[in-house]
Amino acid sequence: MLYKGLFPFQVGPAQEGNKLGVVLLGGHKDPNETPLETAIREVYEEAAMNKTPIHSPITFYKASWDHRAIPVTLEEKTSPLLLKENLDLSLSVMYLAHSKNESSPSSETCGLLLLKPEEICLLCKEKITLNDYIKQNGVAILKRSINKGLVLEPFPHLKFLAKLLEDNPDLFRDLL
């Protein structure tokens, strides 16, 4: 998802409570929904963003987060950026999309970070607190009070995106 060249990600307390997870917008598929319909619905529910899907110039497949991303060819009108296999043999799907409206965290979301590509790479390389991120002019839209002194913990989708941006710096140039 892109909004004015920024990637929105959820931020909130990680399960252990000693870090803030930085997580892809998304969720579970409803019956009879396609993966793309799920992505559109979930982004709207979590961030009030109307998204226009973008055909990814390349699709990657990962058997697990520990495996290398393999480029694959799909015959889809709107191909996703990532297909990742889950333990139950379902797929997690990550689409590219654009939104013209500003995001707003829903009641189920603590807050959102609107990340520049270089901030994605920074969060995945260094331990940085939410306070440090904000002091460096990072955009955080917080719905409720969060301990800003906690370290931001990138979840797998963010790490995948950081690696992709690092390995293919021109991949998103036309989209940003």
Portion in helices: 10-25%
Largest sheet: 5 strands, mixed
Residue fraction in strands: 25-35%
Order of helices and strands: EEHEEEEEEEHHEEH
Structural class: alpha+beta
Task: State the name of the first-level CATH class.
Answer: Alpha Beta
Which architecture per CATH? Alpha-Beta Complex
Physical arrangement of strands within the biggest beta sheet: 10-9-1-2-11
- The CATH homologous superfamily is called Nucleoside Triphosphate Pyrophosphohydrolase
Total E-strand runs: 11
Intertermini distance: 11 Å
CATH-derived topology: Nucleoside Triphosphate Pyrophosphohydrolase
How many individual helices?
4
**Poorly predicted parts:** none
**Averaging pLDDT over every residue, what do you get?**
89
**Structural shape:** globular
What does this structure look like?
The chain has helices spanning 35-47, 117-125, 130-135, 156-167; strands at 7-13, 19-24, 51-54, 59-62, 70-72, 82-85, 91-94, 96-99, 111-115, 139-142, 151-154. It has 176 residues and is α+β, with helices and mostly antiparallel strands. It has a single domain (7-167), classed as Alpha-Beta Complex (Nucleoside Triphosphate Pyrophosphohydrolase). The model has no long low-confidence stretch (mean pLDDT 89).
